TrEMBL record, chain B:
Coiled coil start-end: none
GO MF, any single term: phenylacetyl-CoA 1,2-epoxidase activity
Naturally occurring in which organism (per UniProt): Ruegeria atlantica
Matches recorded under InterPro entries: PaaB, PaaB_sf
Lineage: Bacteria, Pseudomonadati, Pseudomonadota, Alphaproteobacteria, Rhodobacterales
Enzyme category, top tier: oxidoreductase
Keywords: Oxidoreductase
EC numbers for this chain: 1.14.13.149
One matching Pfam family: PaaB
Top-rank taxon: Bacteria
Protein name listed in UniProt: 1,2-phenylacetyl-CoA epoxidase subunit B
Length: 325, 94
């Protein structure tokens, strides 16, 4: 998902406190920042929320790429609002992570020097306007699948951030579907572009949920802590089931010859994405990894004089006010 | 010297007549910028009619371990609730 393959940390804590902590989680009582928590819970959450926040921020780049070239003024205003929302999502999540004792600058630096990851999906390019429709529809659609259950997560600040985010996501998916629908119902060339976008974004969207976690010890711990609510496979299946009729309505073909309804299971059968590609992208070898990190580093470096200048101004003003008192 | 902008806690009045509610936090160099940033981060969809910002390190909070001493005394004072008293039906609304 936006936080893929987050390793959960083993804990070396007082067993009595651990049992009390787990009992609270089992009773659906939220954990708040000042409450006692296992070291592993804290570390795993910093990693997970941080990765989620970074994904929101880096995720602005592929869409921001098309703001100046949106086909109409209205589409441009909509895309601008959508991308601005993503900046907001990043900020809500950074705040939640900071309540666990990590600073904003530390998180930023860990993204910039590659110590922390962001979702694999944002390492794919947006080549044309149809891709912007596909991103809103499929990528935000996949994100929603994961974010809706996370509203119930055990850590209070994370849960509250997810609730705010979910309120805004539906707009994202709908504007994407609306944009790609316009093309799917347009000229043969436009329809071809829509299909091409679907072909390129389908498997990377399925990868967003991360590899099957059937045997993963980490996800068992995360599920016990309620910082992961569903398995990757459950969410991926749900996404496929929801998306197939939406694609059919558009007259677009899902690029999977083995996709078919399974009456017995009551779900669609579908092909797994190429996991070697996924691991390669995670390692830094996707089509846009270098560009994305370079863009974030440039923004951070170019903004330094502004950050420093405003802080110096604020300190000077404060000193002046104190002197006048 | 630490060059990270201070953290501000943001409180928003959602509608006229309601009290301000904590909605989250953000970083800003000073109060003026914190209000401007809060406008962009927390009220993009008409969520507010008024914003308060408070620098986070000016907030003092009770600690979770004080939960017992702070709140348990009120548990034994049920007579503070109007339903503690039986009022005869005959006397009408009270
Ligand atoms: Fe988002
Ligand atoms: Fe979104």
């Amino acid at each position: 998902m936006y936080a893929q393959m987050v390793k959960s940390e083993a804990s070396n804590d007082d067993p009595e406190k651990l049992a009390e902590f787990q009992a609270r989680i089992d009773a659906d009582i939220k954990i708040e920042p000042k409450d006692w928590m296992p070291q592993g819970y804290r570390k795993t959450l910093i990693r997970q929320i941080g990765q989620h926040a970074h994904s929101e921020i880096v995720g602005q780049l592929p869409e921001g790429n098309w703001i100046t070239r949106a086909p109409t003024l209205e589409r441009k205003a909509i895309l601008l609002a959508k991308v601005q929302d993503e900046a907001g999502h990043g900020l809500y999540l950074y705040c939640a992570a900071e309540t666990l004792g990590v600073s904003r600058d530390e998180l930023t630096e860990m993204l910039l020097d590659g110590r922390m990851k962001y979702s694999s999906i944002f390492n794919y390019p947006t080549l044309n306007w149809a891709d912007i429709g596909a991103v809103g529809w499929l990528v935000d659609g996949a994100a929603i699948m994961n974010q809706v259950p996370l509203q119930r997560t055990s850590f209070g600040p994370y849960s509250r951030a997810m609730i705010r985010i979910c309120k805004e996501e539906s707009f994202h998916q709908r504007q994407g579907y609306d944009a790609i629908r316009k093309m799917a119902e347009g000229t043969p060339e436009q329809k071809k572009m829509a299909q091409d976008a679907m072909n390129r974004f389908w498997y990377p969207s399925l990868m967003m949920f991360g590899p099957s976690d059937k045997e993963s010890v980490h996800s068992a711990q995360s599920m016990a802590w309620k910082i992961k609510i569903n398995t990757n496979d459950e969410l991926r299946q749900k996404f496929v089931d929801q998306t197939v009729p939406q694609a059919e309505y558009l007259g677009l073909t899902i690029p999977d010859p083995d996709l078919k309804w399974n009456e017995e299971r009551g779900h669609y059968d579908f092909s797994e994405p190429d996991w070697s590609e996924f691991f390669d992208v995670i390692k830094g070898n996707g089509p846009c990894n270098v560009d994305r990190l370079a863009a974030r580093n440039k923004a951070w470096d170019d903004g330094k004089w502004v950050r420093d200048g405003l802080l110096a101004h604020a300190r000077k003003k404060k000193a002046g006010n104190l002197a006048a008192e | 010297m630490n060059t990270e902008w201070p953290l501000w806690e943001i409180f928003i009045r959602g509608q006229h007549g309601m009290s301000h509610r904590h909605v989250g936090s953000l970083h800003a160099p000073d109060a003026e910028m914190a209000i401007k940033n809060a406008r962009d981060v927390y009220t993009r969809r008409n969520e507010g009619v008024s914003i308060w910002v408070v620098e986070a390190n000016n907030i003092s909070a009770s600690s979770p371990s004080d939960k017992g001493p702070l709140y348990e005394p009120s548990e034994s004072k049920v007579y503070r609730h109007p339903t503690f008293f039986d009022i005869p039906d005959e006397v009408g609304a009270m």
